[in-house]
Amino acid sequence: MPSQKLSISNISYKNDESVRILTAVLSKWFSNPKTLHFTSPNLRYPFNINHWISTFYNEENIETYILKEGDWIIGHLSVKIYENRNLAHLFHLFIDNENRHKGYAKKLIRYVEKNIIAGKDDITAITLNCVKKNIPAITLYKSIGFQKLKEKKWLKMIKYIERN
Asked: What are the residue ranges spanned by the domains of the chain?
C-alpha cells in the first residue's frame, strides 16, 4: 500500500473539537504506562486529558503541532516560547508506535525550528527534557545538535540557535 501524504499543522488545546480529537489519539498512544512515563514522567497512569491540559497547556505562548499521514495523526510536538529568557522549550514529542524510526520526530522538530523559532530573532536556544533511559530519543536529539545541559531526574538538553 503506498504511503499517504505527510502534513504538519497547528492544533489547539483551547478548541473543543481539537481536544476531542486529541483525547482519542493520546488515550490510544498512552494506553501503556511506560509510554506515558517516557513522554511525561510526572503524569500518573491512566492517562487523563483534563489533567494533561490543566498541567501543561493552560499557559500562554504554547503551540502544538501534529504530523498527519493522510487523515491520521501520527505525531505530536509542543513548544513553549519563553521570550523573557530568549528560549524555546520543546515538550511532548511523540510518534505513533507504527511510524517510529522513519525520521518523523526529526521532521517535526525541524519544522518547529524552521517555521516557529526561526521567525523569533530573540530566541537564542532550544531546550527539552528527556527521560534518561530513553536512549533512542537522546540519540535523535544529539544527531540534530542538542547537547546535555543538566542531568537530574531527567536529562535537560539544549541546542543553541545559530543566526546568519
From this structure: 6-160
